[in-house]
Each structure stands twice: as C-alpha cells, then as structure tokens.
Amino acid sequence: MDAHSLVPEEHYIREQPYYEAVGDEVAIFEAAYKNRLPVLLKGPTGCGKTRFMEYMAWRLKRPLITVSCHDDLTASDLVGRFLVKGGETVWVDGPLTRAVRVGGICYLDEIVEARKDTMVVIHPLADDRRALPMEKLGQLLEASSDFCLAISYNPGYQSVLKDLKQSTRQRFVAMEFDYPSPELERKIIANEAKVDPALAEKLVKFAQLTRNLKGSGLEEGASTRLLVHAGKLIASGVEPVSACRAAVAQALTDDADMLAAVEELSSSIF
Ligand code: ADP
C-alpha cells in the first residue's frame, strides 16, 4: 500500500458489502471490538475472511486499512519511514500507524508471511498497552480508542518456519473460518457470480470433490473464491468444463496428473 495515499476518508466502506454470516462471527467480532481486543482470523485462502473484515468495517463505521503481508514486509513498512521530498526529509506514516492514529481497523492479511521484526510492533499493540513503538521517531504512540487490530493466517500452510508463535497468538481473540456449508456456499456463488441455483449447486459439488483431494496431491481444494470465478466465466458464456479448468484446476496446481484428476471431476459433474 502506498503510504502517501492513506487518507482515512478513502478507507470507509460506504456500501454494505455482501456477506453471509456462517456462525456467530459477527457477534464475536463486535464484542471483541467493544472490549478493545485484537482479533485473529484463521482459515484457508478464499473462504471469506477479507469480505468479513469489509463487512465488519462497514458495520462498525470505521475505516479499513488492509495490508497483504509478504516475506519482504518489515516493521518499517507498517510503521513508516523518513522520505526525502523536495530536498526535505519528512516522516511518512505507514498503514499501521495511520490506523492507530485515526482509529481505523488494520487488517494484516497472512501475517506469518511478514518478517519477524513486525512482531515487535504488533505485540505492544495487541495487549493492554495498545501502543505502537515508533523506533525511528523515538515515540510510543498510544492507539486511538477506536483502533482495532485484526490479523489472519492459514494454519494449513503451517511449517516450522511459518507458524504463529504462542506469544503472538495468545494475545488475540481467535475465530476459525472455513468453507461455508453447501447451502450457504450455493447461495454465495449464485449471488456473487449471478448464476442460477442449479449451476451453483454443481459448482459446490465439484468443490467438495476437489477438497477431498487435499493432502493426496492437492495442497488445497477449490475455495469459495475460485468457485465464484468459475461461475463468472460460465455466466459470461464459457463452457463449464473449460471454466473449471481455467478458474479452478489451473489455479490449484501445476502438476499434470492432478490437473487431469481435477478435470475428470468437473467432467463427471458438468
Ligand atoms: P479470504 O480473505 O479468506 O482469502 P475472501 O474474503 O477474499 O477470502 O473471499 C473470496 C470470495 O468468496 C469473496 O470475494 C466472495 O465472493 C466469496 N465469499 C466467501 N465467503 C463469503 C461469505 N460468507 N459471504 C459472501 N461472500 C463470500
């Protein structure tokens, strides 16, 4: 995210995002927010975590500042840095600092991807201190009472190197996300991809078959996101087996045998 573009007004979500609640996640998040507790969303990619955050930001009327973490992301990327502008050195807030100042919701997506030094700034924000250490400015910035820290991670990708430490995870109220129930997933696909319920049902059946392959060749099965993509292609006139190949199979794997296996599944349904 470009630090210069972080104007809080632009981060308000004006229209209600379409979100189908799966369980009591809305009530839990609201209670956590009320009590100034940070939140951890666990779950596979494409199962609705980002959409949920957009919905909650809209509901709570707070700006949402999302950072997709990657393995080069440092504490300075989150907190900010000095930049030279027109011969002058100026301080530019990073996205986390902006959220802390303006009382926004900062959503750090796939937190385990980030460099380990990011934890130094996250820990004091995620406990009673609710303060952001700004090392370069020699300041400890107290978070606005409206500030909320939310992070996500996918336990499925867990490895010794990329796991969330107990010292981190035990600071958060944690919620597990998973693919929605078949009925709900049908409804979501029909709504998002504008396809009829019968087609949505077939896509969900196909997804379930691919999810059974998890662990025996596939790292993950088809997510709700991929089904929405396939549905959109089909709604635009692409033949279903081709749509499933492009939007789902090729997105899941490069392995020729697995591609053939996934294609067999879609051919058996469509
Ligand atoms: P994640 O952040 O978990 O990777 P997203 O929130 O981006 O996943 O979800 C991917 C897509 O799946 C969304 O853009 C939306 O189309 C759909 N989706 C998944 N779950 C839901 C839900 N509960 N309500 C509405 N849409 C959903």
TrEMBL record:
GO terms assigned for molecular function: ATP binding; ATP hydrolysis activity
Alphabetical list of Gene3D superfamilies matching this protein: P-loop containing nucleotide triphosphate hydrolases (3.40.50.300)
InterPro entries: ATPase_dyneun-rel_AAA, CbbQ/NirQ/NorQ/GpvN, CbbQ_C, P-loop_NTPase
Keywords: ATP-binding, Nucleotide-binding
Stretches assigned to the CbbQ/NirQ/NorQ C-terminal domain: 185-267
Pfam families attached to this UniProt entry: AAA_5 (PF07728), CbbQ_C (PF08406)
Positions of the ATPase dynein-related AAA domain: 38-172
The family this protein is said to belong to: Belongs to the CbbQ/NirQ/NorQ/GpvN family.
Name the record gives this protein: Nitric oxide reductase NorQ protein
